[in-house]
Structures are given as structure tokens and as C-alpha cells.
Amino acid sequence: MTLKSINGYASWISLVCLFLVLQIVSFLTLSTIQNVYLLKANRQNILELSIVDHAKSMIDRNNRIKLCHTKEELIKEKDETIMNTRVHFQDYSTYMECTYDNVCMKIYYDDKSIVDDKSIVDVVIDEP
Hints:
Shape: rod-shaped
Distance between the termini: 80 Å
Number of helices: 1
Strand order of the largest sheet: 1-2-3-4-5
Strand content: 25-35%
Mean pLDDT: 80
Largest sheet: 5 strands, antiparallel
Structural class: alpha+beta
Order of helices and strands: HEEEEE
Low-confidence stretches: 119-128
């Protein structure tokens, strides 16, 4: 049994080495893509937590005004920039709607606390 091919090189060893190199490259590519998606998800999570925190402070302020019957104005609508993203807050008395990019997040609440929050991915169309 001969180990050399016609041109003098050990062909089966070079094929095994090529296969191993391809496996290593594909593993590195997949792990890099996974890390990119993980970082993107982490940024999205931080953004959503910041939005919920802003909405909660708005809800608490409006509830305090309603319950204490102060002369302050309720904040029904507000625009904020959070992490370089423009977010529009709209208070509908039973839920707070937070809209940014293509996401509409509805945070349901009563006069005591936040009851539920639902994120609905939807295309927001601004009408002229």
C-alpha cells in the first residue's frame, strides 16, 4: 500500500488537514455570529428595561396626581430619547403605550401598580 499519490504528496493526510481547518473555521464563524446576536439581544433588553422604568415613573406620577387631587397637570404624552432611540409615551388611563422603531409596547396598570406588559412587534405608520 502506497501513501503517495501520483504527484508525490500524501493526499489523504492533506485532505484530513483541510477538513480539520474547515471545521475550525466554521466553529469560529458560528461562535462569532452567536456572540454578535447575544450582544444585540443584551442591548435590546437594556433598552426595554429603561423604557419600562420611564413608563413606571410616569404612571406613578400620574397616579399620585389623581389620588392626591393636586393641581399639577397629568402627563398624557411624552417623547424621550433613550439610548439614541426616540421613544413616544402615550397614557390611556389604563395602559401606557410606548412606541419606538417598529415596536409598540403596552404596559397595563391600575391605580396601585403595573398589572401586565405586552410587547407587540408591529410596523408603526405615521399618518400625515
